[in-house]
Amino acid sequence: MGCLDYIIINYRWVFVCIFLLPVSLFYNIWFYLRNWMVFKLSSAPNQHKNKVEYVQRQILKWNIDGRRSKMCTARPGWQTISFRQPAYKKTSTKIEVNLVDILNVDVQKKVVIVEPLVSMGQLSATLSPLGWTIPVLPEIDDLTVGGIVMGTGIESSSHIYGLFQHICLSYELVLADGTITNCSPNENAELFYSVPWSYGTLGILTAVEIQMIPAKNYVELIYEPVWGIDNIVTRFNEVSRDKTNEFVEVIMYSDNEAVVMTGTQTDHLGSTKLNSIGRWYKPWFYKYVQSKLKEITITKECIPLRDYYHRHTRSIFWELQDIIPFGNNIIFRFLFGWLIPPKISLLKLTQTEAIKKLYEEHHVIQDMLVPADKLEESLRFFNDKLQLYPIWLCPFILPTNPGMLNSRSDRDEKLYVDIGIYGSPKVETFQSRETTREIEKHVITVNGFQMLYADTYMTREEFRTMFDHSLYDDLRKKLQCEDAFPEVYDKISKQARI
User: Fold this and answer.
1) What is the distance between the alpha carbons of residues 403 and 389, in angstroms, rounded to a whole number?
2) Residues 184, 170 contacting (CB under 8 angstroms)
3) What is residue 1's predicted lDDT score, i.e. its pLDDT?
4) 119 and 128 in contact (C-beta within 8 Å)?
5) Mean of the per-residue pLDDT values for the chain?
6) Neighbour tally for 477: CB within 10 Å
7) Highest mean pLDDT among 29-43, 279-293, 355-369
8) For residue 46, what pLDDT band results from cuts at 50, 70 and 90?
């Protein structure tokens, strides 16, 4: 490593603190105010039709011009949540999609209709004051509805409701021939079940109808320290199958210690302590949870609902520790914590080649979805291959719906677990490509899935073994997508990302 590379990598925090944090703050303020005004003025529903027709005109023109290259959205690759940028955008016809608005909140039907670039932070900020929320609201503010629909999303309530796709009631898309269509379980059902995990390869998503549920003011959260991998897995399964727990997640801090968290919504504090964990000066959530290991006993507190939803945003789970090593220091939090976190998109945009190489060779960002009955086996496997902690465990149910996940589900609804692994492995034998390949093969062996935002080294054949392409392939032919959009594999494989 050269001297300049060493400085760029080890002192990146200087650039992040001086430049990216202030820029991120102003960007967030502008975006929040803009969306608040649009919603208050009720202008979004009137503009939505015009914006969708603009997408339609672009696709019709692409057809008239002879379908010379495959299409993708014009959204820059650095704005996506993946730490890689897609190479395919350089050679594709870019379709401008300026769909960033919440269109309608219908409390009678208990649905919210949104455009695909609406973020989780934007959605929770709009619904919470109205007394509503959605059943599955993924943690990171910048995650967008479209990204989660076309990929996938999960939350600590997923052991009850499933993945984000399972709370979506209908989709609006513009297809390859320029047709605007709607799909739901009762209308164009094959398309409805094929959209999730399709990564924009069946059409351009323009609106999503999402189920709503009433929201309460707080989450009463119970912290339970557990030691021993056998005990951790047993307790995880017990609380995940107990539907009286509205929220379930586990953070493992080593192969032998974890904190199990269960929560329920409530409007009443009673004698329970209130902890507003979203305030800028509060410890990062995962570090605060780690302190519960020292208390040994089970503890309980109430957290404001929106603070709970976005509990991992300020530290980007635990990724920010590698970028700003002193970020959780009490002095830094008190003086500058209100600037945290930097926008993930801006972090990507300003990555140097040295940092990209560092992340590729020495860093892991993966979410592996495996059956709950294979959890202990998988944890031991990942520990042998990575020795990387903390590890995030989030349970979810997998219904027997058609689509890309069909081949991994049994006849009955089944409990799965998202094993989230983020950071730098401690094993000396770690090699990015080879180790990830071993992990992917393990996940296939246990009938699991890999979230596709991360690096994927699978061959096309292995990818088709992991995901059921039967319905997807039929629709690609039926909707004339083969020369209109890349296949999913061509958008998510390591060769397609830089």
Assistant:
1) 33
2) yes
3) 47
4) no
5) 90
6) 9
7) 279-293
8) confident
301-339 pLDDT per residue, tens = 999 999 999 999 999 999 989 888 899 999 999 998 888
Residues 186-216 have pLDDT tens digits of 999 999 999 999 999 999 999 999 999 999 9
Q: Which residues contact 87 (CB under 8 A, 6 or more apart)?
A: 495, 496, 497, 498
pLDDT at 314: 92
Q: Which amino acid type is present at position 11? A: Y
Convert the pLDDT of each residue in 214-255 to its tens digit.
999 999 999 999 999 999 999 999 999 999 999 999 999 999
Q: By the 8 A CB rule, do 116 and 145 touch? A: yes
From the number of C-beta atoms within 10 Å of its C-beta (0-12, 13-18, 19+), residue 177 rates as middle
C-alpha to C-alpha distance for 436 and 458, rounded to whole angstroms? 9
| Residue 223 CA neighbour count, 13 Å, CB half | 22
